[in-house]
Fold this sequence. Notes:
It contains 24 helices and no strands. The chain is an all-alpha fold.
Amino acid sequence: MNALADPGEAGSIWRTEKIDSFQKLAAKAGLEENEEYKRLITLIVAETTSLEQLWQAQKVENDAGMAAYGAGAHGKAFHHFSEAIRLWPSNCIYHANRASSALKLGRADVALQDAKNAMKRNPKYCKAYLRAGACAVALQRPSEALSMYQHALLLKPKSSKAKARAGCEAAARMCEEQARTCEQEAASALHGERPPMPPAAPSDEAAAEQLLSAEAMLQACPDMHAAICAYIEGLILCQRYADAQNACLPLLPGVDRLYLQAEASWRGGDAEEAHTSLEAALALAQDSSKCLNLRSLVARLLQHERAAAAAREEGRLEECIGECTAALQTTEHFSCAGLHCHLLYHRGSAHAAAGHSQEALGDCSAALQLNPAHAECLHLRHTVHREMGSYVEAYLDLQRLRTAAPSWPGLLQLMEEAATLSLAHRSDLRASAKAGNVPGGYYEVLEVPVQASAQDIRRAYRKQAAVWHPDKWLNAEKDDVFRAQDKFREVTLAYETLGDEQKRCMYNAKNLWY
Length: 514
């Protein structure tokens, strides 16, 4: 640690001498009673006193920091050194002292920045370079550490020469160790020795924890091959397939890189790209079991996808639906949300073309549960809703599409058409209501008026459920049992819609018969 710098005390002496000299010159000139002189000397003395107080305050803080550091209270020392820096930001010694306490606290990154700040304030301050070298070693940056220690040697301080030489030797050994590690990692990456990814999906919480852990490891060791691989695997399990592909770029070339690119590709919905990556990986390591196993799975998926595409092109819609279903069943236990969205979209499109509107809506909704911003599914669901006459839902799908893909071709025109159809549909409903042609719908099922409160609806549901619950009809005739089951489902659906404020608003907006 370092004592207070001499320049502070020297400055105090210099200021005192200058004031004394100024007063003597004024007395010699007979200006003691001059008002301007009195004002000026009062101001100079006040400013000098303020500087003296500031100097004393930062000295006290630095001394307290040194005492705390010596007692092993490094957190307290860090606080005192920070106060000293606040009072005298340009003092290189205070920055170097705080770097020492930060290093003891395990914050090598903070310590390195403080050491560099000390170097900026005094490029010839040897201890700043020694601090920076120690911090770089702690951060596993031997090349940077070696540079710092070599610079300290060039300054030739007798008291620090031994430390600088020892630091150079330690940094050089670490450089050699890192070089050997890099060679081993390069060989491992080339042959793909890293274990394969688990096929099953962990829970969302477990996937997030794995990603956060990998990010922390990567931050500590940004160039480590294993850390980058773990980070990419975490991204894939969190369904961030595009980010995973980008993260593969800095990986060492070899089987591991190609394998992870393939994992991100097929799980994201691009089996063709995955197959290409796996073929390249197997050209480097023909007996790689993880690549062989994954290629077998991807080949089956490609077979189903190509058969589905050919069937759709030739108008064999049921066959297309069957192939998509088979592909989904092949990967039902895998973590591959992107692929499932892709397959559900194509199956939903085939259902829509075959006139299976409900099945198409089901596939679109299932895909959008996995990825709410899947633009193709939003557009397909809009089309199906429109063909079914559900114009409000069609318009809402387009609003979601505008958020997910604002540059979707012809989106504004589609929204204008959907809005026009929705308004026209409402007008027709109003006319039908006036003619008495529209039934009461869910309100009639629960036997409540349109203006019923949420409490009225809940009370009505309990009343109807008590009558039509299947348990009440266990000993009834078969036809009565079926009728009660249908009625109970109807009552439940009515309550699920009218008991939810948002769903009730949408229901009223669509039907508008009141």
